[in-house]
Design brief:
The protein is built from 13 helices and 20 strands. By secondary structure, the protein is of the alpha/beta class. Strand 16 and strand 17 form a beta hairpin. The structure holds guanosine-5'-diphosphate (GDP). The site of guanosine-5'-diphosphate has 22 residues, from helix 1 and strand 3.
């Protein structure tokens, strides 16, 4: 039974965590493929609300092995804090595995993230300031420290000393900032390393063994494919590839082992931070979507920008990741609208384009071509069968299916585990 990828098809926060948690009930393993502690997944269960940053969203299912893959960047203190907090709430974390190849996010990455953003002033990217961008930059420039280095104090001391030295030079000479103290950082890392040591393995081997044994493996992407470093709205993107291809790479799964790619899309658009968003609604409608969808960042508390469903962006992510099934979430948020907009093209100058242009200036100045469909103006939160959904909603979903070229399989009608309809159930 090969792998299933769960990926966000928009700008993140599509409700991937909830879907992963639900599907994990029938899986042996959930592997997180990319991103760092900038991700925030919310899973709401009978036992309360869990906000996860680095730990895979399968953790609330006791039988599931949860893997942090090689493509993730790990801030150790955050991970250890998250695991301890889960343990205190009675969650069994004994199934956690961490890739020995994953890169570390270190305090100087965080510091540099903040200082770089300040330097960009009005052009700031709106990063979560967690240091992930600088950590991925170090990974690409072959300066990174990895989890495997942590477990060998001699190796850690040698590599860390070189990096602290170089970063302190950068911090003081470029930014006039305080240097990082090596000894304090080194001993903190050694202490944290002891906590994770039993969980560190070559995860790509474990994942491959599971696939070979016919176990069901779910690969979970953080963020959304419109934030992809290659095909997103660069430079307002994340530093990894939250696409199906990136999922394979980050988790250690081969493309030929993937059976299904579930694209998670919310019924409208949201975006956190800077960057173009042609379908953005800056009016009362946008505010109503924000209020109803509780669109504030899980970790940052920042209000998310809102807009109608952007079918141009969604079609791009669906095609580039080969989405085989759509999970349409937060449909209930649109329950009160009499008509619902879909952005079906971008007007750039005199031209209407139906792809996402590379040049930000084109995208920044683009106005949305909107197509309106009738709303259903009915409460959907108690509905549990696809056939019981209002006709207008089924029509809206079918419009999206046509544009994205994939069928809607799951529909989210509320934040709880139970408020998820499987069309095939
Ligand atoms: P993720 O990062 O993709 O997992 O998404 P987030 O957790 O950041 O954001 C999704 C938010 O929407 C969370 O607060 C979820 O509890 C909530 N949510 C997920 N699915 C639904 C749904 O179908 N309806 C409603 N109203 N909320 C949902």
């Amino acid at each position: 039974m090969p792998a299933t990828i769960i990926m966000g098809g928009q700008w993140g926060d599509e409700g991937k965590g909830k879907l992963t948690d639900a599907l994990a009930a029938n899986a042996a393993m959930v592997v997180r493929a990319n991103g760092g502690s900038n991700a925030g997944h919310t899973v709401q269960t009978r036992h309360g609300t869990f906000k996860l940053r680095l730990v895979p969203s399968g953790i609330l299912n006791p039988r599931v092995r949860c893997v942090i893959g090689a493509g993730v960047v790990i801030e150790l203190a955050t991970l250890v804090g998250e695991l301890r907090a889960l343990q205190e709430r009675g969650i069994d974390t004994s199934g956690m595995l961490i890739s020995d190849r994953a890169h570390l996010v270190l305090p100087f990455h965080k510091r540099l993230d903040e200082l770089e953003e300040l330097r960009r002033e009005q052009d700031e990217i709106g990063t979560t300031l967690n240091g992930n961008g600088p950590a991925y930059a170090d990974k690409a420039s072959r300066h990174g420290l990895r989890v495997c280095d942590l477990l060998h104090p001699g190796v850690l001391r040698r590599k860390l000393a070189i990096e602290v030295d170089a970063k302190n030079h950068h911090l003081s000479k470029v930014f006039g900032a305080e240097p990082i103290r090596f000894e304090a950082l080194y001993s903190d890392l050694l202490e944290l390393a002891e906590f994770v040591r039993p969980m560190v393995v070559p995860t790509e081997v474990v994942v491959q063994d599971a696939i070979e044994a016919g176990e069901r493996v779910i690969v979970e992407c953080a963020q959304g494919a419109m934030l992809d470093i290659d095909y997103g709205t660069y430079p307002f993107v994340t530093s990894s590839s939250p696409t199906a291809a990136g999922a394979c790479q980050g988790a250690g799964v081969a493309p030929s082992q993937v059976e299904a790619v579930i694209g998670v899309y919310k019924a409208y658009s949201t975006r956190v931070g800077g960057g173009p968003m042609p379908a953005e609604l800056l009016d009362d409608t946008g505010e109503l979507i924000r209020q109803r969808g509780r669109e504030w960042g899980v970790n940052t508390g920042r209000p998310r920008r809102t807009g109608w469903f952007d079918a141009v962006a969604a079609r791009q992510t669906s095609r580039l990741s080969g989405v085989t099934e759509i999970a349409m979430t937060l449909v209930d948020v649109l329950d009160v609208f009499e008509s619902i907009g879909l952005c079906t093209g971008y007007r750039v100058g005199d031209e209407v384009v139906n792809h996402v242009p590379a040049l930000l200036d084109d995208l920044d100045g683009a106005t949305p071509e909107l197509h309106f469909v009738p709303g259903w103006t009915k409460d959907t939160t108690e509905i549990r069968a696809f056939s019981a959904l209002p006709t207008q909603l089924i029509q809206y979903l079918s419009e999206i299916e046509t544009r994205l070229g994939a069928p809607v399989r799951y529909v989210g009608v509320g934040p709880d585990r139970e408020q998820l309809i499987d069309r095939r159930a």
